[in-house]
Design brief:
With 386 residues, this protein is an alpha/beta fold. It has 2 domains: 163 residues, no CATH class; 165 residues, 2-Layer Sandwich (Nucleotidyltransferase, domain 5). It has 16 helices and 6 strands. A 6-stranded mixed β-sheet has the order 5-4-1-2-3-6. Helix 7 packs across helix 8, helix 8 crosses helix 11 and helix 10 crosses helix 11. The longest helix has 21 residues. The radius of gyration is 23 Å and the shape is globular. One of its GO terms (molecular function) is nucleic acid binding. InterPro entries: RNase_H-like_dom_plant (IPR044730), RNase_H-like_EbsB-rel (IPR052929), RNaseH-like_sf (IPR012337), RNaseH_domain (IPR002156), RNaseH_sf (IPR036397), RVT-Znf (IPR026960). Pfam families: RVT_3, zf-RVT.
Length: 386
């Protein structure tokens, strides 16, 4: 574990947050040079070409046409693309648009209450929006931009972050603006960033086609928990992110062939706010638990498809969470009869509920044979699926 007291002495809050989000492993492997423009961390001609095209398209004489083409090809929910399209055309229902139609409303931004609201102000210039972009690691400075479209073109040009994340952040800022305008409440900066990242991850997982590596998982339409073979146990694991607390929560549950509760754990992990790192740490926790217990666990189920796929691969993992994956593979070697299964979120509700409950815990906690009351209903619902 990181020495939190020492980090507090040496670094500011933002640097501490970034440092603590780096997971520690027992492998102690050497540092590696990774390709940051591809999630797997390895360079390919395709990823290099894509990166060059991202850099060059803005300088061509057809920059505007390429902008629209790029926008409609972003791998984000359709409602997010639609929002960015309307924002780029400056037709979002902001207060300056209402006043232009002679609607008598207060012209001030419903979030900061300081300046007149416009699309550019709401999504970029508002003090709250500026803090969100900073927390997301996006340099939002663009002094020459006169509208949102010009700002987004410049931001996509100068940033290494995935373009999908940038438009998701804009969507989350707009969602927060609507909460402030219509319900009089606003999320925290970190919650807005977390909403964007989590929604994007969940959408990608739900829309990623199954590869041959997932052939041993449940069928694509499977959304119900299934018991393990007679005489064996199944462990389900999930993770949750709590940006406002600067931590992740791991939820693990073991059940038998009748669907009966055997044991469960909740493990808070301070400093980790990346969903994929948290999911990988959940698998590591599950394997360590199995090795140290007497339970004959045959199956470990998780709903994070990218982590599952990484576990199934046999080659060197150069992804940013690859060190944890390699540690999981090392632990799994001592469990030759163990299988990993990928399932959809609906088939992983008990572990998901446990992970969410980590919000209220500061230390790990466990139960054996008598489950906590707050998972009783989901346990019952799963048992009725059999």
């Amino acid at each position: 574990m990181w020495d939190f007291d020492l980090l507090a002495e040496l670094f500011n809050e933002e640097d501490r947050r970034q440092i603590m989000n780096i997971p520690l492993t027992a492998l102690g492997r050497e540092d590696r040079v990774l390709w940051s423009h591809y999630k797997k961390g390895t360079y390919s001609v395709k990823s290099g070409y894509k990166r060059l095209m991202e850099d060059s398209f803005l300088y061509s004489h057809t920059a505007t046409d390429n902008y629209w083409s790029k926008l409609w090809h972003l791998k984000v929910p359709a409602k997010v693309r639609n929002l960015i399209w309307r924002a780029s055309l400056n037709v979002l229902p902001t207060i300056d648009q209402l006043r232009a139609k002679r609607v008598d409303v207060d012209s001030r931004c419903p979030v900061c209450h300081l300046h007149e609201e416009s699309v550019l102000h709401t999504l970029v210039l508002c003090e709250f929006a500026q803090k969100v972009w900073e927390a997301a690691g996006v340099n939002s400075s663009s002094p020459t931009a006169t509208n949102f479209k010009e700002w987004l073109i410049g931001t996509l040009e100068h940033h290494n972050q995935e373009h999908e994340l940038i438009v998701m952040i804009a969507w989350a800022i707009w969602t927060n603006r609507n909460e402030a305008a219509w319900k009089g409440k606003s999320y925290t900066v970190l919650m807005v960033v977390a909403n964007a990242k989590n929604f994007l991850q969940q959408w990608h997982e739900a829309n990623q086609p199954l590869s041959p590596l997932t052939a041993t998982s449940n069928s694509p339409g499977e959304d119900k928990w299934k018991p393990p073979p007679v005489g064996y146990f199944k462990l389900n694991v999930d993770a949750a992110i709590f940006e406002n607390q600067g931590k992740a929560g791991l939820g693990l549950v073991i059940r038998d062939e009748l669907g009966s509760f055997v044991a469960a754990r909740i493990v808070p992990v301070q400093g980790i706010v990346d969903p994929l790192i948290a999911e990988a740490l959940g698998v590591r926790e599950a394997l360590s638990w199995i090795k140290s217990s007497s339970f004959e666990v045959r199956t470990v189920e998780l709903d994070a498809l990218m982590v599952y796929t990484a576990l199934q691969n046999k080659g060197v993992d150069n992804s940013y969470f690859g060190a944890i994956i390699e540690e999981c593979r090392l632990l799994a070697r001592d469990l030759p009869n163990l299988n990993f299964h990928w399932v959809r979120r609906l088939a992983n509700q008990v572990a998901h509920t446990l992970a969410k409950a980590a919000y209220s815990f500061h230390d790990r906690v466990g139960w054996s044979y008598f489950p906590p009351l707050f998972i009783s209903n989901v346990l019952l619902a799963d048992s009725m699926n059999e």
